[in-house]
Design a protein that fits this description.
Layout: H1 3-21, H2 32-47, H3 52-64, H4 73-90, H5 103-113, H6 118-167, H7 172-226, H8 231-239, H9 244-253
Length: 254
């Protein structure tokens, strides 16, 4: 579980709900009309933006925001150095059945074991990496659609509430109901965009950036193994991608 996501998500909700409750009661902030307009209406509008498999896949992507992802290039450099040492001593077949921390690395290593050369392996892994980025982006665009459409549907709720209010000026109770629908709809839209889906979209984008950098480093390491480079050389190449302080720690541990 990624604590930053969990704490941020729960903390954001508690801050909003706590502020509502500070007035003594939450009932004025609860509106079935507002919920239907923003959440239900927004759900179908977001569905409209993407093919059904991509739309459904976006919910799977949301779950990954709460998972802890280990994209530590320092650890990767040490692992690649270890693998290179095994290959130089015992050959590629000694790595048969070895489990690696990322499926792209696993596929690349298996290609080398099966006899693929460096060029063929690199070309295939870069294609896999491009496809992965495209899948992630498609799902993240669905989440971004919530950020755009949530406030828009909140504004629709505001307009509906104002129409109800203006059409019933003679009845004070209906005027109050219309005003409540108008204000709560706008609030729900802002919550959807800024508490739920805006931060999540940013988190997923950052996770993808980190994963791509990790995979690119892994490909560089596998290329070194394919060329039978010295383990120390591979560590130097991968450590160059790290901040200076962390780079020095990795080189000292090698």
């Amino acid at each position: 579980m990624d604590l930053a996501t969990l704490i941020g998500f729960v903390g954001g909700i508690l801050a909003v709900v706590g502020t509502m409750a500070a007035g003594g009661h939450i009932a004025p902030f609860v509106s079935l009309h507002g919920f239907m307009i923003v959440f239900v209406g927004g759900f179908f509008a977001v569905m409209y933006t993407a093919p059904m498999p991509v739309f459904l896949g976006s919910f799977k992507a949301m779950k990954t925001a709460f998972k802890q992802h280990d994209y530590d290039i320092g650890k990767l450099a040490l692992l690649m150095s270890e693998l290179a040492g095994v290959v130089r001593k015992d050959g590629l077949m000694a790595l048969e059945g070895r489990d690696l921390p990322h499926k792209l690395m696993q596929g690349g290593l298996q290609m080398l074991i099966d006899g693929s050369d460096e060029h063929k392996m690199t070309e295939q892994l870069m294609q896999d990496l491009t496809a992965m980025k495209a899948r992630h982006q498609a799902r993240q665009e669905v989440i971004k659609a919530w950020v755009e459409l949530g406030p828009a549907y909140g504004m629709i709720g505001t307009l509906i509430g104002l129409v109800e209010m203006m059409g019933n000026m003679s009845d004070p109770t209906l005027v109050g109901k219309g005003m409540a629908t108008a204000l709560v709809g706008t609030m729900y839209g802002a919550i959807v965009a800024n508490v739920f889906f805006g931060p999540m979209a940013t988190k997923l984008k950052n996770n993808t950036t980190r994963e791509v950098a990790y995979c690119e480093a892994a490909i560089e390491g596998l290329r070194g193994i394919a060329r039978s480079e010295a383990p120390r050389s591979i560590i130097y190449k991968l450590a160059a991608r790290l901040p200076v302080s962390q780079r020095e720690q990795i080189l000292a541990a090698a």
